Amino acid sequence: MSVHARIETEEDVQIIKEYTLLPILLDMLARDMEELKVYKDKIVYNHILFYLREVETAIYPQLQSIKSVMKKRDIKVIHTEMNALGINVEYKVRGYIHHFTMLRSLVKAELMTTLMNMRGGLR
Q1: Which residue in 52, 85, 104, 122 is deepest, having the highest Cβ count within 10 Å?
Q2: Please, what's the b/e burial string for 81-120 (b: 16 or more CB within 10 A of its CB; e: otherwise)?
Q3: Is the sign of the CA dihedral 76, 83, 109, 25 positive or negative?
Q4: How much is the pTM?
Q5: Is 20 within 8 Å of 89 (Cβ atoms)?
Q6: What is the top-level taxon of the source organism (predicted)?
Q7: pLDDT on residue 123
Q8: Between 104-122 and 10-35, two packed helices, what is the crossing angle to 10 degrees?
Q9: Of 91, 122, 85, 74, which is closest to residue 107 (Cα–Cα)?
């Protein structure tokens, strides 16, 4: 095994980040759909619900694809912890344990970017 195979790459970190953020996005969508039930008598309700379900449906294949890539690259998420400051992730890349933290503001920005990118792909 070469030395470079042991070093985590920027692409590895991006994969871990996406794998961490997509379930959070799914939770947010589920919460929002539940909260929107208050407006179910409004005309726009079904339109918004349709869009949110479309986004939710698009996330699952993405998550499966990421899991497949992680398996091929020998990447495993060991532990994810959410707290008031953000998210702490402990993961293993090709046998070596690494950590990273994302502040809440970065999580929010990344989720908004992901949603905007998905919006372009859903049209």
Answers
A1: 52
A2: eeeeebbebebebeeeeeeeebeeeebeebeeebeeeeee
A3: positive
A4: 0.84
A5: yes
A6: Bacteria
A7: 52
A8: 80
A9: 85
Which domain covers residue 107, as residue numbers? 3-122
Residues 6+ apart with CB under 8 A from 87: 20, 24, 80, 81, 101, 102, 107
For the chain, the domain total comes to: 1
Write the pLDDT tens digit of every residue in 39-81: 888 888 888 999 999 999 999 999 999 999 999 999 999 999 9
Neighbours of 15 (CB within 10 A): 21
Residue 48, both tokens? 């918004």
